[in-house]
Each structure stands twice: as C-alpha cells, then as structure tokens.
Specification:
It contains 5 helices and 5 strands; from the N terminus they run αββαββαααβ. The chain is an alpha/beta fold. A hairpin with a 5-residue loop joins strand 1 and strand 2. The protein starts with a helix and ends with a strand.
C-alpha cells in the first residue's frame, strides 16, 4: 500500500511556467511601417519619399536634400509628425501658388485638412479656437482625413457649418 501511494503521489502533474505574452501590434505601428509624403516647393530634391512611421517634417526636409538657397521654412512646423499621403510645400510664403499657406488670402485660400495648422483652420467661416483644436485632434487621432466629408464626424460641425466650410477645404 505504501508503494502504491508513493507512485500515485509521484505521478501527479507538476506546474510549468507559462511562456511570456507576445506584445500586441494593434496599438502601436510596427517598426517596419512607412509613410509616403510628397515634398515640393523650394527644396533641393522635390519628390515622393517613403519614411518610417513617426518621422517628422524635419526628417522629410533632410531626406529631400534640405531647403534650397533663399527659401524660408518659417511657416513649416518641423516638429510635426508626418501623415501618410500628405504634401509638404517648403517656402510657400511666396504667393498664391501655395494653397493652404498662411501667406494666401484667408478669404480665398483652400486649406488642406491634413496639413493646415490650428491657426489656419481658425480662418475658416464659423471655426474658432476650440473647433480648430477639435479638427486637428480628430486628424491626429484618425491618421489624417481621407475625405472632406469626414469633417461631419468632428464634434461641433453640423450640416450648416459643414456647408460653409466644404468649399474652402480639401484633402
């Protein structure tokens, strides 16, 4: 009897440690993900560039060979993260050929929702400081706008305000 108890006790399963959990890739972009940006204007090598996700405007300017002689980058936010599919216009303070630039007349400028600053968005009809901040927050949290109609999803933009803003923005 003692031998049987010994073998039964010895044959019980032993706990084994679990393998470490694998990190979820859904919340953060993988290190291999890329963004595609178009760099134009007063830049040494304008064109379309593929950069790592999380890259900044300064990185895009550097990849494109830097700013051309005499060009101003005062209107660019070099610290802003890049959004896939956006266009960056360097030295756009020269005139009306640069839609969305702060030098263009606010009454006639057509702003790019994916690159306009909060201050530029405030120039839109019926858009104040709070609504402009909501638009940029929506843009940042959704990875940019894919259509102008997405403005309807921003809190505070109803049908009437959307109809006023729609002809003055683009994606």
């Amino acid at each position: 009897m003692a031998v049987a108890v010994f073998f039964v006790w010895r044959s019980q399963p032993k706990p084994e440690p679990l393998p470490p959990p694998t990190p979820s890739a859904a919340s953060t972009p993988s290190p291999t993900s890329k963004v595609t940006v178009h760099i134009a204007g007063k830049i040494r090598k304008p064109g379309v560039y593929l950069l790592p996700a999380g890259a900044r405007v300064a990185d895009a300017v550097t990849v494109a060979g830097g700013v051309a002689r005499g060009a101003s980058i005062g209107s660019l936010n070099l610290a802003r993260r890049l959004i896939d599919g956006e266009q960056i216009i360097v030295g756009a303070s020269g005139g009306p050929a640069a839609p969305g630039s702060s030098a263009a007349d606010p009454a006639t400028a057509i702003l790019d929702l994916n690159s306009a600053t909060t201050e530029q968005l405030e120039q839109l009809p019926g858009v104040g400081e709070v609504l402009a901040a909501r638009i940029t927050e929506f843009r940042d949290s959704h990875g940019g706008f894919t259509s102008v109609e997405q403005l309807r999803e921003v809190s505070g933009i109803g049908p009437r305000k959307f109809d006023e803003i729609k002809p003055k923005v683009r994606v």
